[in-house]
Amino acid sequence: MKSAFRFVSVTAAALALTFTLGCAPPAPPEVDTSTEMVEPSSNTTTSAETPMTEEPAGE
């Protein structure tokens, strides 16, 4: 009888501890999902306008 009481006591303590501390994983970080388009400024160039330059290989 003592072993059954001890089992119930330990189980109740474990459940109380679980519900107190929580067992859910931490919430994921917030991610910015805005769909606003950024207007290019007048001083930027697109990849088609960027001149191709070749740099010599490092020695």
UniProtKB/TrEMBL annotation:
Record field: compositional bias (Polar residues): 32-50
Region (Disordered): 24-59
Signal peptide per UniProt: 1-23
Keywords from the UniProt entry: Signal
Name of the featured protein: Uncharacterized protein
Source organism (scientific name): Rubripirellula obstinata
Taxonomic placement: Bacteria, Pseudomonadati, Planctomycetota, Planctomycetia, Pirellulales
